[in-house]
Amino acid sequence: MIITLAAHANPAEIQGILTERGLWITQYHSDQNQVQFLVSPSSMSVDKNELLSIDGISDISTPPQPYPELMKQTTQVTIGQKTIGINATPVIIAGPCSIESAEQIAIIAEHISQCGVTMLRGGIHKPRTSPYSFQGYGEKALQWLNDASKKYHLSVITEALGVEELDMIKDVVDVIQIGSRNMQNTPLLRAAGKLNKPILLKRGMAATIKEWLFAAETCLLAGSGHVLFCERGIRGFDPQTRNLLDLGAVSLLAHVHSMGVIVDPSHAVGRRDLLLPLSQAAVACGASGIMLEVHHDSKTAKSDGPQALSLDEFTMLANKIQMKSDAS
Ligand code: PEP
Ligand code: MN
């Protein structure tokens, strides 16, 4: 929304009045003839006529919508047996960081399904920081993932590391994950969008919310059925946690833009002891779900062992989150 002031207005005074009403002014523009405020979308409802009745405001206009496809997107999406999004019960997505064997993914899939979870995650190729770390078992892992998901009736989410992987995963996955390192890989966003499947779009580790929204818009413009956002922590300055979980961004997307956001506390903090409080915090601030890494024997995990919950720890966490959701 753009608010134009009348020539006689005192900008500081009007700014005070608008701020007091909860409006969020993000830009100020002034030339000899005119002062304008650019007001960000807000979770507060705004009555334009009431604003126009304030002495000193001469005009209110709406700039062209920067994310038209996103704004048209429904606030919920159904994946397998679950509806995910605004006002739906928060979901849990769980599974290992990487799929390491048929046995490993089957044990984890069986366990999470017994906990009432309906979506299985797991990487087939891993986007590792070091090229010498475990890179994933690729097509073999996809087969193991498919077998486990069928056996335990779970929906599947896995990451497409590049355009060339989409063909391989498209018939197995219910949701295509775009990883943090790929959030601004436009060819991948477009190609994944063309498959007309839901996309889980992880936030780049140094991406602004605006860049994240535009990346989602790119997927939708290419044909994606739905984009869910995934906050997985941004680059912080303190190595005591792996990343910095930006719950402000989660609230903003959920409460101001009505977008479904999944929070991934595992990659955000990188340590399993903090996953319960952060999962609870995520749900409290409007997340539509959480995604957690789980391993039945994390000391042997080929990637991200320190942040994987054991099966028992997962049961406890899932019970706490689900009980709270049922009660609300
Ligand atoms: C993952 O979820 O497996 C992953 C690699 O996460 P991110 O892209 O957030 O680092
Ligand atoms: Mn991981």
Describe the protein in words.
- The strands form 3 sheets. An 8-stranded parallel beta barrel has the order 7-8-9-10-11-12-13-14, surrounded by 6 helices.
- It has helices at 11-20, 48-52, 68-72, 102-114, 139-151, 163-169, 186-194, 209-222, 247-256, 265-269, 275-284, 311-327; strands at 2-5, 24-30, 35-40, 57-61, 76-79, 82-85, 91-95, 119-121, 155-159, 175-178, 198-202, 226-231, 261-263, 289-293.
- It has 2 domains: 2-61, Alpha-Beta Plaits, CATH 3.30.70; 68-327, TIM Barrel.
- The longest helix has 17 residues, at 311-327.
- The mean pLDDT is 95.
- Helix 4 (102-114) runs parallel beside helix 5 (139-151) and helix 7 packs across helix 8 (209-222).
- It has 12 helices and 14 strands.
- The chain has 328 residues and is α/β, with parallel strands linked by helices.
- Helix 8 (209-222) links the parallel strand 11 and strand 12 (226-231).
- It binds phosphoenolpyruvate and manganese (II) ion.
Structural class: alpha/beta
- State the strand order across the main sheet: 7-8-9-10-11-12-13-14
Report the principal-axis shape: elongated
CATH class of the largest domain: Alpha Beta
Give Rg in angstroms.
22 Å
**Secondary-structure element sequence?**
EHEEHEHEEEHEHEHEHEHEHEHHEH
Domain module tally: 2
Bound molecules: phosphoenolpyruvate, manganese (II) ion
> Termini, distance in Å?
34 Å
If you average the pLDDT, what whole number results? 95
Task: Give me some keywords for this one.
328 residues; Alpha-Beta Plaits; alpha/beta; elongated; 4-stranded antiparallel sheet; 2 domains; 14 strands; 12 helices; TIM Barrel; 8-stranded parallel beta barrel; binds phosphoenolpyruvate; binds manganese (II) ion
